[in-house]
């Protein structure tokens, strides 16, 4: 299977590259940005085009959101003409106000924010004009490297003593970029084998948690690992934010359809987080050792 992935520096693109390197049945070509040349698309003839999500669109500049939506629509048009499936990953933040219950796949986001509505309009176009598509709605992605990775930002801030803020009244399902990459490759492999299960899917980590609790767990687990290695540096503080005093916001995705259609199970975010922090600590220790030897 040959995949073309856009936005080379995105944490999901890097995770897809790692996943492809572990497999012998998947070949990856990664383009730098979101611009897609129709001639190059035809020459590469991938089995699918994958577009990583614009993370945190709620706080992104309107011009950035519009540029992303327009680029996705141009990609959709090129894929439709070339009869190449399109995979577009989107943030759960399109469900701006959340829901009391887990959000099913058939629920189309209806945000009030104009920028978010622009992304929804792009999804509507894809559903109407290109049947061979997967729109994959994701929980907040975390990873150690790449843009939109979140976890690397948290670690860097904590290590340098900076304050990390997290909403105590926003509940979500943090999602490992590596877990998403593994799921996407598996889903597309099954599509190649005739699954013909196009449409919208939700993919997120298990255990809904507030953003504040997630960043607190990151700080606690990082401190425990550093202390175990004899590194007793003080980490930056955590501050709880309260933006939804009267009605706490729940943005929890129901991922039942991806399990029923493809057998994809949600990965526990605590386990994924622990593995990533272990990897960061190993790399950090190697850097320290190399620095001492160089001195």
From TrEMBL:
Gene3D superfamilies (UniProt xref): NAD(P)-binding Rossmann-like Domain
Pfam families reported in the protein's UniProt record? RmlD_sub_bind
Where would you find the membrane-spanning parts of this chain? none
Q: Which residues form the RmlD-like substrate binding domain?
A: 66-279
Kindly provide the name given to this protein in its UniProt entry.
dTDP-4-dehydrorhamnose reductase
Question: What phylogenetic lineage does the species belong to?
Answer: Bacteria, Pseudomonadati, Pseudomonadota, Gammaproteobacteria, Oceanospirillales
């Amino acid at each position: 299977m040959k995949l073309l992935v856009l936005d080379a520096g995105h944490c999901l693109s890097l995770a897809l590259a790692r996943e492809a390197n572990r497999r012998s049945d998947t070949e990856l070509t990664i383009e730098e940005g979101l611009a897609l040349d129709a001639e190059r698309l035809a020459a590469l003839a991938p089995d699918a085009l994958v577009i990583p999500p614009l993370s945190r669109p709620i706080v992104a500049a309107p011009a950035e959101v519009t540029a992303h939506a327009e680029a996705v629509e141009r990609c959709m048009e090129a894929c439709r003409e070339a009869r190449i499936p399109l995979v577009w990953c989107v943030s759960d933040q399109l469900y701006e106000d959340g829901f009391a219950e887990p959000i099913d796949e058939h629920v189309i986001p209806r945000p009030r924010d104009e920028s978010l509505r622009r992304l929804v309009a792009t999804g509507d176009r894809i559903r109407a004009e290109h049947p061979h598509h997967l729109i994959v709605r994701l929980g907040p992605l975390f990873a150690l490297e790449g843009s939109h990775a979140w976890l690397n930002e948290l670690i860097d801030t904590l290590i340098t003593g900076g304050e990390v803020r997290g909403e105590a009244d926003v509940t979500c399902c943090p999602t490992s970029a590596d877990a998403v990459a593994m799921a996407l490759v598996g889903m597309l492999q099954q599509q190649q084998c005739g699954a013909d299960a196009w449409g919208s899917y939700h993919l997120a980590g298990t255990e809904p948690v507030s953003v504040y609790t997630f960043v607190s767990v990151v700080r606690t687990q990082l401190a425990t690992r550093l202390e175990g290695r004899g590194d007793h540096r003080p980490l930056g503080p955590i501050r709880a934010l309260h933006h939804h005093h009267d009605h706490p916001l729940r943005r929890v995705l129901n991922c039942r359809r991806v399990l029923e259609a493809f057998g994809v199970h949600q990965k526990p975010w605590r386990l994924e987080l622990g593995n990533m922090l272990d990897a960061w600590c190993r790399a950090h220790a190697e850097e320290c050792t190399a620095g001492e030897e160089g001195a």
